[in-house]
Amino acid sequence: MKQQLFQLSISTPDGQFIARYSTKGLAELSFPKVGSARGADRTPRRGVPTPIRDWHRTTESALQNILAGSEPENFPPLDLSAGTKFQIRVWNALRKIQHGKTESYGEIARVVGKPKAVRAVGGACGANPIPVLVPCHRVLAANGIGGFGGGLDWKRRLLAREGVEA
DNA sequence: GTCACCTTAGAAG
DNA sequence: CTTCTAAGGTGAC
After folding, report:
1. Which of A9, A32, A112, A124 has the greatest CB tally within 10 Å of its CB?
2. What CA–CA distance (Å, rounded) separates A73 from A161?
């Protein structure tokens, strides 16, 4: 059974992000599609529960803050229940990385109690449903920036905004 | 079952 | 210094 997600868009200087909410919180966030300026948001004007509209406000503000290179004051509740036990631990570890700081895949692996599961951490980052708010981009390889599934370009840009040298 | 992936420490050349 | 290998979790085939 698949539960209904409420999809709303967020306009930023970098384009239109798409946020999807479950009844538990923000479940997904996706980068703008290049070139598509049209309102692809299937925002159900009348079916959005009040708490979700509220979270969306917070998400918008948090996202815009991060893109502008500053630390968000508030985060919406995140619904990470789509992930596996391991992935959820990784994502929670990522959320602890402070703005402007970075960790290596090895560090995260150690934090989640699987020091040797470095590559698995990479996998979990790639599976991260909420980029930017769950800062998968703050995880670098031990010898450089490493990779980035949805465009290494974004990773570099986000890090640059935070004043991080990659 | 096999392979590829946002990795890395260590051994060999 | 460069190259190769092995090892972990997960999803696609």
Report:
1. A124
2. 17
Instruction: Return d(Cα A138, Cα A145) in angstroms, integer.
Output: 9
Closest nucleotide to A146 by C1' from CA = B6
Query: Could you list the pLDDT tens digit for every one of the 166 residues in chain A?
Result: 556 899 999 999 999 999 999 999 999 999 987 655 555 555 555 679 999 999 999 999 999 999 999 999 999 999 999 999 999 999 999 999 999 999 999 999 999 999 999 999 999 999 999 999 999 999 999 999 999 987 899 999 999 999 998 7
Q: Please choose, from the candidates A25, A26, A21, the residue with its C-alpha nearest in 3D space to the C-alpha of residue A5.
A: A21
Between CA A148 and C1' C4 the distance (Å) reads 24
- Strand C nucleotides, any atom under 7 Å from protein beta carbons: they are 7-11
Is the Cβ–Cβ distance between A154 and A148 less than 8 Å? yes
